[in-house]
Write a structure and sequence with these properties.
It is built from 18 helices and 26 strands. The chain is an alpha/beta fold and 589 residues long.
């Protein structure tokens, strides 16, 4: 059995291997005994060789293991560390999502922090009292040890310096410095780079109402509701977290609230921040200088000291779900934070998900705007395309829709056609053998784009020209299936000559500013018809009277999603809310 050491650390290694997904025991060197804390990022030796791995301390104890242990090599800056609540969250995620320690840590901490190598301690070097002149240096150093002599002379001239400065100035290695320290020719001191934690910020959780709140309002009533509960948290000196489904929504809320709550030092968290900005934000949150954070789903993993209010904005949107492992949902992490901080949790959506609505119906949840009417549209009509087919209409437009578009053009009313697709046709097949063109990486059917005569994968960047021969039979005879926005635009330009048609999708409209500009052009009458995806469904973008038509509603109802019906119902409610003009109408085909 190994000779007893003072302390040991249980460390989770950052290693993409399920076989090593456990805590490893390492000895804590005496030099780090008072510097190492739970959650610190460390460097250790792993395996037979001298390979170094990063890891995080999950526990510190005095129990002597019955096996031989290695020692921790280096401690890194506390800004890269996990706090107690983040460690608990990591353990919970590992059980909840069946992920590894490494996957959970990589989700909680930014990648720049995982790779960061800033040391936890600054090493200060100085000469001992026995060396006070150049003659004393000559008497203690061999004549041919020129680099060591240069280093000692540098310390004699400059006094106490950091280790890195001495290595750069004298060209000496860390191993040579260690030898001089061992011979007592250099005195080494450590200064810990700590982050000050505020005292007395823990709010009294007695008599706290920690039940959930479900807000079913839309702007501006929704934001007024946020203000009411943020004011309550601010009075209690607690932090506020507002999580949006996309960065554009987070930026919008940050802009609207940052001036009013300037005393809370609000910040906007996004994936585009530099490592220095991330470190600064991390320190500000840890020191409780920042008590208001806006961001997307990854903002739930910041090291909050005491959360009083968590707002999940537009909770039913897909942007709250992670596609990579661990596949978490913002609302699930928010529930954990709610119990961890004894905070209030508000879900906000004009049409909340059925699962979340049912879950909150079974507990003491405050519903806000439950019976509110949404929109003041004159009417909603539904067209059965089976009847159109029986009457001889084989086109993509029903007779009613075609007549309404013609009426809108005469009256100056706008038309918006919703189609959640890209390209000209959604799939391409060989007419000789029936082979369907698919992406070799994703296995999805390639879409046809008429603009550049190409076939593209709807998921990745795979693209081939249309003149490529069939990989099955060598034929180049293709047949195009499905309706895409480019095909709809061609059909509209044939039927309504002279129409100014605008196509809006994620490929053509990259930013929210571009979307706003397109909406302004449409509102001013520059465009007659918009063919778009769900991008246009945002409050106050469209203020012109419009006919909003949903083509091929079956595509939404019978999509490859178990909650497709729920999502389509939510889509209709959001369409009604986004069109504020009373003369507008909705047609579902």
């Amino acid at each position: 059995m190994e000779v007893a050491k003072i302390m040991y650390a249980e460390i989770a290694l950052i290693r993409n291997d399920k076989d090593t997904d456990k805590l490893y025991t390492y000895g804590i060197p005496e030099c780090y005994e008072y510097d190492l804390n739970k959650g610190d990022k460390v460097s250790v030796s792993f395996g037979r060789g001298s390979n170094r791995l990063m890891g995080f301390v999950f526990n510190i104890h005095k129990c002597v293991p019955d096996f031989k242990t290695k020692e921790i090599i280096e401690i890194f800056s506390p800004v890269y560390s996990l706090n107690e609540k983040q460690i608990n969250l990591c353990n919970w995620m590992r059980k909840k999502y069946a992920c590894t320690y490494a996957q959970a840590i990589k989700t909680i901490l930014p990648q720049d922090f995982i790779r960061g190598t800033k040391p936890a301690c600054n090493t200060i070097l100085e000469l001992p009292g026995s060396i006070s002149s150049a003659e004393s240096i000559d008497s203690k150093i061999r004549p041919n040890a020129t680099i060591q002599k240069k280093a000692l002379m540098y310390l004699l001239e400059n006094g106490s310096v950091e280790e890195a400065s001495l290595m750069e100035a004298a060209g000496i290695t860390r191993a040579s410095i260690d030898k001089l320290v061992g011979k007592e020719l250099i005195v080494s001191k450590r200064t810990h780079c700590s982050i000050k934690s505020p005292t007395g910020i823990e709010a009294n959780a007695d008599n706290r109402i920690s039940d959930n709140i479900l807000c079913m309002l839309d702007s501006p009533e929704r934001e007024a509701c946020y203000l009411h509960y943020i004011d309550q948290a601010a009075k209690r000196m607690e932090s506020v977290l507002v999580v949006s489904n996309e960065i554009a929504e987070a930026e919008k809320l940050f802009k609207n609230f940052s001036k009013k709550y300037e005393r809370l030092n609000p910040v906007l968290y996004s994936g585009n921040l530099t490592i220095s900005a991330l470190e600064s934000m991390q320190k500000s949150i840890l020191s409780n200088n920042t008590r208001m954070v806006f961001g997307t789903r990854n903002s739930v993993f910041l090291p909050y000291k005491k959360l009083g209010l968590i707002i999940v904005d537009r909770e039913s949107e897909y942007g709250h779900k992670s596609d990579s492992m661990p596949k978490f949902h913002t609302s699930e992490i928010a529930e954990f934070l709610k119990h961890s901080h004894s905070a209030r949790l508000m879900y906000s959506d004009i049409s909340p998900s059925i699962g979340n609505y049912f879950k909150n119906s079974n507990r003491n949840t405050l519903f806000i705007g439950k019976n509110a009417e949404i929109g003041n549209l004159n009417g909603i009509s539904c067209i059965d395309m089976k009847k159109e087919l029986k009457s001889g209409n084989r086109t993509m437009f029903s007779t009613n829709l075609e007549n309404k578009i013609a009426t809108c053009r005469r009256s100056g009313k706008g038309t918006i056609i919703l189609l959640n697709q890209k390209g000209h046709s959604t799939s391409v097949a060989c007419r000789s053998c029936g082979y369907v063109m698919k992406c070799p990486s994703c296995g999805l059917s390639l879409s046809y784009y008429s603009g550049d005569e190409s076939l593209r994968c709807p998921h990745c960047s795979y693209q081939i020209p249309t003149d490529t021969v069939c990989p099955s039979c060598g034929s180049n005879y293709y047949k195009y299936f499905g309706i895409g926005p480019e095909k709809v635009r061609e059909e509209i330009e044939k039927r309504f000559s002279g129409s100014n048609v605008l196509l809006i999708n994620s490929e053509k409209t990259k930013t929210y500013k571009e979307l706003q500009k397109s909406a302004r052009d449409f509102n001013s009458g520059k465009h007659d018809i918009i063919i778009t995806t769900e991008l246009i469904i945002k409050k106050n973008l469209i203020d012109r009277p419009v006919l909003f038509a949903i083509l091929n509603a079956d595509m939404f109802l019978y999509g490859q999603d178990y909650n497709a019906n729920e999502r389509f119902f939510s889509l209709i409610r959001k369409i009604r809310s986004s069109i504020s003009n009373v003369d507008s109408e909705l047609l579902i085909q």
